[in-house]
Every structure is written in C-alpha cells, then in structure tokens.
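Title: [Solved] ABM domain-containing protein 3D structure

Original question kept below for reference.
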Amino acid sequence: MNPLNQPDDPPVTVDVLQQVKPGCEAEFEQVLSDLVKAAKGFEGHLGVNIFRPANHSNPEYRIVFKFDHLSNLHHWEDSAIRRRLLERTKRFTSGSNQFQTLTGLETWFTLSSQGAIVPPPRYKMLVVTFLAIFPLINLLNLVLQPLLKPLPTLLRGLIVTSVMLSLTTYVVMPRMTKLFARWLYPKSKG
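Solution (posted by the thread starter after getting help):
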C-alpha cells in the first residue's frame, strides 16, 4: 500500500510517557522488551525508540513507536498480544500512561529528547521544510530528469515526487530537525 495514494492512512508516530514504580524498573524493562519484540512482528512497524529516565527519583519512560500507516498502528493496538503485555505493565507502573498520536507533517518534527511531542509553530515548520525541500527537489531534478526523460510527464512527476517525499520523510527531515533543534524547540526560561 502506497501512503502517497492513501491520504486517509498516513504514517504515524505514537509518543507514550509511562511512570514506573520505584524498584520495578527491571521488571518493567523485561515487559517493555517483550512489547518491542511483539511490535516488530506487525506489518508496517518502522521502529521504536525508548528513552529511559535520566532522573531515578522520577522514573518516567518515553516510548516512541512509528508505523507506516495509521491502519497498521490500529492492527497493533487492537492485538491480543499488546493487550496482554500492557496488562503485565500495570503491576510495575503508576498512574495512567500519557500518549499522543501524530500524523502528517508534525511527525517530521519529532525530537527524541523531548518529554512530549509538541510541534513547533507552523512558520518554523514552513522555513525548515523549505530549506529541506528546495535543494532536494533541485538536486532530484538535476539527477533524475535526464534518466526519466523518455517517460510521460505525469509519470516523471510521480516518480520524482515519490522519491522526494520518501527522502524528505525518512532521511532529510529527521536530520534538519536535529540541525535546527535549538530554533524549533527553544528551552523555556524558568
């Protein structure tokens, strides 16, 4: 299934914050490991990042799941194995977990070190996206157009757009987000 043809089934990022009971970190880590292994077996799973607590007096874990399509995320969320594993985590956690699901351009602007995913202002996303796409589209046109010249115009456009969006989503924007992190996500003064 091609995400470019499925606007109602976009790529998705799920950000989960979970408090672990003091002294239960090892048990939680085992269940978390089982959860990650299980998620990897589901279609469309693009990876998971685990950010362990920096402060042991506040043992909050951040887990970020990525799926290629919202429908594949729903298959994972509705699975019996996920329900069983989440039930096991309840013994080792306190409070309810906080989660946020993001689709669309916001997923380009997710930093791995933040406590929760809060997209930057739209004008900042526009500037960084422009700085990423302008050189990329010109480079792709320079490299691909001579190779694609024999093809019909619409097919050339489709191929260039598909390559550009794939590179933008998986290669360029994660690096641009890190490069511009201080501007996109300034530290609040407190």
